[in-house]
Amino acid sequence: MEKRGSYSLLLVFCIYVLTAINAQQPDPRFLVLSIDCGAASPYNDSTLGIKWQTDKNYITTGTSVQMKEGTGLLKQLYSYRSFTSGRSKDCYTLKVNTDTTYLLRVRLFPGSGGSSSVALPVDFSVSVNSNHWFNYSAVTGKDSSEVLQESIFYSFQMEEVYLCLLKGERGAPFINSIELRILPKTSYVFSKSTLEPPKFLVLGDRLNMGAKSTDQPFRFPNDDFDRIWWPALPPKYPPYSRADGSSILSNLTFDNYDPDYPYDFTNENWPPTKTLIDAWVGSDLSFNITRERNDTNRIVGSFYFMEIRPNVNATELDSDNEVIYENIGGPDDYNSLPLFDRSEQSFDLLVPTIEENANGLINVNVSFYSGPFTKILLNGFEYYYVYEVNINATYSSDRDILESIKANFDLGDWKGDPCYPVAWDWVTCDSGSRIQTLNLTGMKLSGPIPENISSLPELTEIYLDNNNLSGIIPESLASLTKLTILALDNNQLTGDIPTQLLNMPGLKLTFSGNPGLTRGGTKVPASPAPSPAASSAPIRSSLKSDVALYRTMLLFLTIWVLVPFR
Ligand SMILES: *[C@@H]1O[C@H](CO)[C@@H](O)[C@H](O)[C@H]1NC(C)=O
Ligand SMILES: *[C@@H]1O[C@H](CO)[C@@H](O)[C@H](O)[C@H]1NC(C)=O
Ligand SMILES: *[C@@H]1O[C@H](CO)[C@@H](O)[C@H](O)[C@H]1NC(C)=O
Ligand SMILES: *[C@@H]1O[C@H](CO)[C@@H](O)[C@H](O)[C@H]1NC(C)=O
Ligand SMILES: *[C@@H]1O[C@H](CO)[C@@H](O)[C@H](O)[C@H]1NC(C)=O
Ligand SMILES: *[C@@H]1O[C@H](CO)[C@@H](O)[C@H](O)[C@H]1NC(C)=O
Ligand SMILES: *[C@@H]1O[C@H](CO)[C@@H](O)[C@H](O)[C@H]1NC(C)=O
Ligand SMILES: *[C@@H]1O[C@H](CO)[C@@H](O)[C@H](O)[C@H]1NC(C)=O
Ligand SMILES: *[C@@H]1O[C@H](CO)[C@@H](O)[C@H](O)[C@H]1NC(C)=O
Ligand SMILES: *[C@@H]1O[C@H](CO)[C@@H](O)[C@H](O)[C@H]1NC(C)=O
Ligand SMILES: *[C@@H]1O[C@H](CO)[C@@H](O)[C@H](O)[C@H]1NC(C)=O
């Protein structure tokens, strides 16, 4: 027999496959959350067995809009939540477990121009915690087809994930549905033994090779984890001959994931049976994919192979299968390779070559090295754009104080990180994730100025003007040594202005329009109030947190091989 990879893993998986046979009950435990944004009431999707909730427990901002239901589109697409307030960001809060791998899918559909459709043009971005995920833009009705985006992330050391819509140049951001699924912890890890550093993956495509021309995309309950598998069909993909093992294999399941089964190897993606039972057949399989994202140079892919044998044909598919798990590289092996150059890499059996041309067209080509094999069966292929998780977050004590200020003044529902990926409208942040300015001008604040604003040591500008603040001006504000602007005009502040503040070098302190305020025992001018120094001190734009560009273009490949067990 030919040399093959990892025998120990092979045996482990083989045993598993045998025990899993016939465990076919659809198991909704991985479908943690399915939200139909803007829907008026929850409902059950009887075809798929998915339970859809409304979004009211996950967000308080925005308004829900229902469109007239048409035919041919998912029910989730006929309602959406619209964010018209003009805030820098609006965030859904999703509860998650730490150290768990999740798939997150959203759909955006602005409607087809009816009265309750989204007003175009619109553009905005979507982020997950501090990670930019994707940009959305629709200018005319031509852009109004459904957009689906999927990401996979793991090892976020957080109990909440913020899915945020970040306002763009034009229009009101909107969203139609949010789906959160749990994946086995070690799936899509793409490195040999470790989940670190955490990754944020963005789906390129997930293909079912060998699908019939009449096949539709499939998902749960055919895929336990509700991944969607799209048929790889002409004209986008070549018309390769197909092998169809469904008559032999329909009662076998390779995929039903059993969390009680002890396994500890990485890169277990658990492809569904429905993907594995049909395949492209050829001696040299080649197809093109299009690069759709420029902001990372790292793409990972998983090939799913079954039955690599000489001269195999469809009727020769065997029910007695095993899996060869071959990890052909982790970051350690690949760091020094130039772009997509796979010439130094060896598979035991196959040569996948992946070449990108100047137009972002990526050619994927799988063929044999040599030897007795003449036919390959390629069952599936997935690829993802890879990002390091951006763990930047607002300095925690600053964040706590902002939370207190928010609660104290009843500022409403500001969710997500105060600074990342864009700051809340009423703060700006410095490059060290500290709060730099606080702009609460004209926010209808009443009550005293919170003492603990003075625990934001990096503050340079505070605008509290044009509110209804009462009480004294806290002396402790003088401890903010970097403060250059403190605007307190047009409030109901009382007492004497602390001399420490009046004597602070470099501080522009404005306080007119506070009838009860005195300076050295003398009343300060009541009105008309000069407007505070706002215009002279433009607030720095929010932090750039664009995902860093990766200089090294890397490709991590995982090969999954199902061969007959003899
Ligand atoms: C959905 O189905 C579950 C049972 O699986 C039931 O308890 C629930 O009431 C149903 N919800 C709706 C909105 O029909
Ligand atoms: C989104 O747009 C911004 C600016 O227009 C750009 O910097 C960023 O790379 C884009 N992100 C993606 C994922 O395309
Ligand atoms: C598959 O299962 C069905 C129902 O359990 C049974 O009727 C059929 O004979 C089985 N097919 C094969 C090929 O074993
Ligand atoms: C892939 O794209 C290249 C360049 O456009 C083209 O020559 C080749 O025929 C394409 N291959 C397939 C399988 O479509
Ligand atoms: C990728 O970059 C090229 C040139 O820099 C640009 O024309 C193209 O629009 C970019 N594509 C995406 C998806 O951002
Ligand atoms: C497929 O293989 C079987 C068994 O080797 C053989 O009898 C049959 O003729 C082959 N069919 C084709 C189309 O090659
Ligand atoms: C695929 O790669 C093999 C081996 O490098 C080569 O012989 C073959 O021509 C390639 N096929 C295509 C369609 O590019
Ligand atoms: C800030 O002060 C308020 C009341 O003075 C207090 O309730 C709150 O706990 C303080 N917040 C922090 C983070 O110390
Ligand atoms: C301003 O605050 C005082 C109490 O400090 C309250 O009586 C008054 O109604 C407030 N005015 C406005 C316009 O909110
Ligand atoms: C503070 O925010 C208000 C809007 O809420 C804006 O009009 C004003 O220009 C901002 N001030 C500064 C200094 O940016
Ligand atoms: C995180 O913040 C630092 C500055 O504090 C910045 O240099 C770095 O690029 C940021 N990381 C990401 C991924 O945005």
UniProtKB/TrEMBL annotation:
Bilayer topology: Single-pass membrane protein
Secretion signal span: 1-23
Record-annotated membrane-spanning stretches: none
Pfam families: LRR_8, Malectin_like
Subcellular location: Membrane
Region of interest called Disordered, as start-end residue ranges on this chain: 519-538
Domain Malectin-like per the UniProt entry, residue ranges: 35-326
GO CC list: membrane
Keywords: Leucine-rich repeat, Membrane, Repeat, Signal, Transmembrane, Transmembrane helix
Name under which the protein is recorded: Malectin-like domain-containing protein
Species in which this protein is naturally found: Riccia fluitans
